[in-house]
Amino acid sequence: MLEKRILQIIKDNLEIKVDRDLVPEDNIEDLGINSISYMDVIIGLEDEFNIEIDDDRLFFPKGKKLEYIIKLIMDAIA
Amino acid sequence: MMKYVLDESKLRYQNSEIMARLKYILQRLEPEILEFLETIPYALINGEALSITAYGDVGYRASMDYDFLVPIKHSKEIKKTFFKHGYVEFLYDKEGNARKPTRKEQIMLINANRLTAFEKLTEDRIKLSFDFNTDIFWGEYRGKHIDIEEFVSDAEEVQLHGVKLKTLTDIKCFIQTCLHHYQLMNSPFHLFEPRKIVLTESWFQDIYCLYKSKIHKKTHILEAFVNEYELQDEFFYMLYYTSVVFQDKELYKLAQIFKTESGTEKLDQFGLSDDERKTWPIPFEDRMNHPQLFKVLKPLMSEKELEKIITNSTRTTYRMEMSTDYTYDPYYYEKI
Fold this sequence. Notes:
The complex is a heterodimer.
Chain A: H1 2-12, H2 37-49, H3 66-77
Chain B: H1 16-27, H2 31-37, E1 43-45, H3 47-55, E2 66-69, H4 75-84, E3 88-89, E4 91-92, E5 98-99, H5 103-111, E6 118-121, E7 127-133, H6 148-151, E8 156-160, E9 163-167, H7 170-186, H8 188-191, H9 201-215, H10 219-228, H11 232-245, H12 249-257, H13 261-266, E10 269-270, E11 278-279, H14 284-287, H15 293-297, H16 303-316, H17 332-335
Parallel strand pairs in B: 2-7
Antiparallel strand pairs in B: 1-2, 3-6, 4-5, 6-7, 8-9, 10-11
Helix pairs in contact in B: 3-9, 7-9, 7-11, 9-11, 11-12
């Protein structure tokens, strides 16, 4: 359930239109997310879950999949 | 070797005003903050630390603040400690007004391997400013990662204006300074800065003085480091142009050790990543001390690139101003 919410928020913050549900296996950069738009994604997630990600985990995860962001948020919520 | 006529008026000399200002700033750093620093791995870099290592005394570098290198995992404790002692995180807009950085700006800075500067004004309106860097590379760097905790682990004690701090060893100071200056000389954002000339003798002088006073007999350590981290192009650029500016044949020979085909191409390019790299439209001697490089570069940049530079400029350029006539509100954080 939480995973679905996270994926929906990521989708809402994308700069490109994606006509399907996102899955954890999606590559971050394939969804048009770059180091600049990544910040909007993270801020969108922080606002939604009222969390603040630690500084050492805020670097743009080049070459990673959405499962990386899902874990980041789940860890921060926990 | 390419010929170059050194402009001695552009070199650094010891400046008593700078020394006095930096002494004032450091002597007002709270004892509790100094005690805290002893509990984390860190090294003082650039500014006065570099002045002592490269020139043998303080006051040679026109810095406005103190820069620290720390592992990012200590950022929370650093913020907590500085906030506790009345420092605030500030950015300045184009009108010079201080404001709290947005979350987006904080994340941008972290991705540029920095924390927001911690500042406060003294009762006589002198700005105390301390900057924290979390890496020796730039945000766009995608090469082998360096563990900063390990990098600063052998930092050496230094007495600065009567205050005991830690700074990098000679060889690490040289490595960090070369990479720092390479970043300044190749970053479109810095090259566009209207009030800062980064392609000038004084920046190469830092490298040259470090080399002549500390490094010329330890080049095997440098070579091992450059090869391990595959930084041949960056060090070729810095050593080659330093040897040209100072017409030093020994340094020129050292630079040749790091020469590659891509490194040779990059001598006439700028940009910190393959995506943003472009060829200079003017030769090196014309780029040096050019007062308006942004006019030379502007036609080469796309609209998106210019927008990125303007965004970054709003974020940091005005923070560098030393004047104290900006809007400063010590109760800013209580009001928001």
